[in-house]
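Translate sequence into structure tokens.
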Amino acid sequence: MPGLATPLIDWYRDAARDLPWRREGFGAWGTLVSEFMLQQTPVNRVIPHLEAWLTRWPTPADLATSPPGDAVTQWANLGYPRRALWLHRAAVEIRDRHDGVVPRDVDALLALTGIGDYTARAVAVFAYGDRHPVVDTNTRRVLARAVEGRAQPGPPHRRDLERMDAELPADVAEAAVVNAAAMELGAIVCTARAPRCEACPLAAQCAWRAAGYPPSEDRRRKQATYEGSDRQARGAVLKTLRDAAPEAVPLFAVLPDWPDAAQRDRAIDSLVADGLAEAADEQLRLPGHPAS
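Result follows.
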């Protein structure tokens, strides 16, 4: 068994958080929705939204029959609302191409809207039990420190999958546990800014620790300040549309008191360009809702 696998498996069995998508029978659709929501969003914010989403749309076909604007509304304040549109489009594709069943094959998953290397393999592994390397930001950080002796990982690269694959046991079930354990370790112990090395199951073999914790350049892209940003303006416009849905809002009534009118207009234009809003007859509405 590869070097990291045994301590990761032993640690995970005792330390893993009880999360909805880890429970028996959660299903491929629930796994797919959770992975969309978890992109750049903390777990504690995702759980209530995930439960509400799956109650409303328990299958891809259920979501596919709703207007995309309903998905944007249900997304609420999760952020990065294009994910809601992508998830809606993926649901339509699953209904139309796969008879309403989330595909198992990684290439078929990659062909769906909004799904990349991580999400496709996460569904194949955690929902269907197949053996693939699953690499997210947390996994990359664990590999960088434990294997490469670097404080922070470099930019994402295809070789990340090869590095993780080298750590996976041949046994399919154990490989799935190692994938989950590496992500969990990075999320709660081997964190970016305050790693708890004294609690780490890999401490005895960690190359970064053995080297004396040398710093390395942090090349992660820094998140721009939200307050006063175009992102904040976009979010405020979307909230106005969600609050009014399914009705449209006259353009003159969209954030009339916003302190920067040019920024507000940019927000409206960008939402329309992204398909998150529709403008017609001097009105703005969420996509797919009929004109009033």
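Note: Residues 7 and 201 are 6 Å apart (CA to CA).
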